[in-house]
Design brief:
Blueprint (H helix, E strand, L loop, with lengths): L13 H20 L10 E4 L2 H11 L6 E7 L7 E7 L10 E4 L5 E4 L1 H12 L2 H5 L12 E4 L1 H16 L5 E8 L3 H7 L12 E9 L2 E3 L1 H4 L1 H11 L11 E3 L10
Antiparallel strand pairs: 1-7, 2-3, 2-6, 3-4, 4-5, 6-10, 7-8, 8-9
Helix pairs in contact: 2-5
Length: 253
């Protein structure tokens, strides 16, 4: 019998996810909402069909296995944020094909030129507005990079739970890493991640139109995943890396 694989590399405890979601809502979103009073920056995006999402992303990354989740905005200098999914080479930001997560919660093929316009809108608006909210001289996130092993584990866990009938939808929540003090406390005083105060995304589960969680749908597997994660700095399912990377640490010796 094949040994069961747990999502210990990519699982994020609920308290960590909640804290990062709260950091986005209190430290990032208010700045975005001020950009255009008639538009409220989104907090999350619904994926309506888990299996269709798995199939689409699997097909997209079939060649090199790595996934980039890019931020865009529909309008220049306004916070109408959208998400674009693309296959990427490591640290490359010029994919040859994109999916847009549309308002129906479906992956929609989008013209590359249009995708680049959405990305440029974000970089010349939202990214600039949030640049001074990152702390430590970090640039605000342009896109989230998921290495092939990480996205494979995430998709595998989606498939496992969907096949069991425990989930029928997903949410991609906008979150932000918190500051060093909060991150260090959440991680039980282990070293804080290098991506402090930077935008990221968190995948969470839905069932029958409502939110649910790993703890609720599969408590026994949840506990075993926690146990397997001891001693591992894991990344809900999101250990992607915000890009661009932080600047090199200054040698103070």
């Amino acid at each position: 019998m094949e040994r069961e694989r747990l999502p210990f590399r990519t699982f994020v405890r609920t308290d960590i996810g909640d804290a990062r979601e709260n950091w986005y809502k209190t430290e990032k979103k208010p700045k975005l909402d001020k950009m255009a009073p008639e538009i409220k920056a989104p907090e999350n995006f619904v994926i309506a069909d888990v299996n269709a999402f798995i199939s689409g992303i699997t097909k997209l990354v079939a060649k090199n296995g790595n996934l980039g989740v890019y931020f865009g905005t529909e309008t220049a200098r306004k916070p109408d944020v959208v998400l674009l999914f693309a296959a990427v080479e490591k640290w490359s930001n010029l994919p040859g094909a994109y999916y847009l997560l549309n308002k129906k919660g479906e992956l929609e093929t989008i013209d590359v030129e249009k995708a680049h316009t959405l990305r440029n809108n974000y970089q010349n608006g939202v990214q600039e507005v949030l640049h001074d909210s990152t702390g430590d001289g970090h640039a605000e996130t342009e896109y989230i990079y998921f290495g092939k092993d990480v996205i494979a584990e995430i998709l595998e866990e989606f498939r496992f739970q969907a096949d069991k009938g425990r989930i029928d939808g997903l949410k991609v929540r906008l979150v932000s890493y918190a500051d060093k003090k909060i991150e260090g406390t959440l991680l039980r005083n282990r070293p804080a991640p290098e991506y402090l105060q930077r935008l990221s995304v968190l995948f969470t589960y839905m069932k029958d139109g409502g939110d649910t969680s790993f703890e609720e749908i599969d408590p026994e597997r949840y506990e075993r995943t926690l146990a397997a994660q001891e001693g591992i700095l894991g990344g809900g399912l999101n250990s992607g890396n915000p890009i661009p990377p932080p600047p090199p640490q200054t040698d103070t010796k």
